[in-house]
Design brief:
With 349 residues, the protein is an alpha/beta fold. The protein contains 14 helices and 13 strands.
């Protein structure tokens, strides 16, 4: 009997970002504990991303049509179908903003089940399970976009958190009891193509950092801005360092008092560890989740539309108060318990 597999259709690049791939890898790694083999099907995938998939024990297959072409929905469905026909696919998991009901309907005949991971609630889907792990999302956002029989999983109870964060959650929460802002991490995801890290450092240079002892910036090795960041860090008053292509994010995060970061997958990882944040909206699709996160009190989101006039300077000043720092930490840890990945895997297995 042919062993059933779980296939993921996901892309990643500097332009697309790496969040889609990372949450799929989180799911695949949990499935591996259940002796389930995962296959990643991609059209747009850089060398480092493919290496990471293989390094984590999964298979990576590249769709041939995409070379020197833009994404083509019909061609993508056709090529994916040809690739998956050779496999006994139990679940096809799709995490891709350009894929919709047409693509999923084309693929339905060659796999037993389809699951969609989405954040946008802006197009129809043909699937048995839809997951939107974002704060503030409800079943009603997708009710008219999926079949009546589709199970809709929404909210932070289903946040796809890696085991490394769950394992150090208690240690991280214990660390937060001192309430002193000493360590700041700047982590804006992927390769930070718009160089938000550099802009943040420029502003921090003129901020009150009297209690800050250490400042760390994390970046992807693909970034074109590494040299500029290194130069800026040499001029910062606190002890500062740059970390590139880290594979121990949990260990780095657990001793940070705040993170200046993007609103995305990483926001929920920070919440799991009870880390307050100053967050930036770096993509339009992040706005709904960012607004909900700001309203919760776990993070101050710097956004002109809803942040009550907060800027980086005022957010830092707010978190200099130990009571504010501890309060935000408690709120964050209560939002995400870290068991979301296990809940999703239990559901689809």
């Amino acid at each position: 009997m042919t062993k059933s597999i779980y296939a993921f259709r996901v892309d990643s690049s500097n332009a697309i970002g790496y969040g889609h791939l990372m949450r799929c890898l989180t799911l695949a790694t949990e499935l591996k504990k259940n002796s389930i083999q995962s296959y990643f099907i991609s059209a747009n995938l850089d060398f480092n991303s493919r290496s990471k998939i293989i390094e984590m024990g999964h298979e990576s297959h590249i769709l041939p049509y995409f070379k020197n072409k833009a994404f083509d929905l019909k061609e993508d469905a056709k090529e994916t179908k040809l690739m998956l026909k050779r496999m006994n696919v139990e679940w096809l998991i799709v995490d891709h903003y350009a894929i919709d009901i047409y693509w999923e309907s084309e693929l339905k005949g060659i796999c037993k089940h389809i699951m969609v991971i989405d954040d946008l609630a802006n197009r129809a889907h043909h699937c048995e399970v839809l997951l939107d792990q974002n704060l503030g999302k409800k079943e009603s956002h997708y009710k008219n976009l999926v079949p009546n029989s589709c199970k809709i999983l929404t909210g932070l109870n289903y946040a796809l958190i890696r085991d490394e964060f769950l394992e150090i959650r208690d240690e991280s929460l214990k660390y937060r009891k001192n309430g002193v802002l000493k360590n700041i991490l700047i982590s804006l995801g992927g390769s930070d193509p718009d160089n938000f890290s550099s802009k943040i450092l420029e502003k921090l240079f003129s901020c009150n950092l009297s209690t800050v002892k250490n400042m760390t910036v994390i970046m992807n090795g693909n970034s074109q801005h590494l040299d500029k960041i290194k130069s800026q860090l040499k001029q910062m008053p606190p002890k500062s360092n740059l970390l590139v292509d880290v594979n121990n994010m949990g260990d780095i995060l657990k001793n940070q008092d705040i993170v200046i970061g993007a609103v995305g997958v990483s926001a929920w990882e920070r919440c799991c560890l009870g880390i307050p944040a100053i967050s930036l909206v770096i993509a339009s699709n992040q706005k709904p989740g960012a607004k909900a996160l700001h309203s919760s009190g776990a993070s101050i989101v710097i956004d002109q539309e809803f942040s009550d006039g907060h800027c980086l300077e005022s957010a830092l000043e707010y978190f200099m108060d130990p009571q504010n720092l501890k309060s935000a930490s408690n709120i964050a840890s209560n939002l995400v318990d870290g068991f979301g990945t296990k809940r999703v895997v239990n559901f689809i297995t």
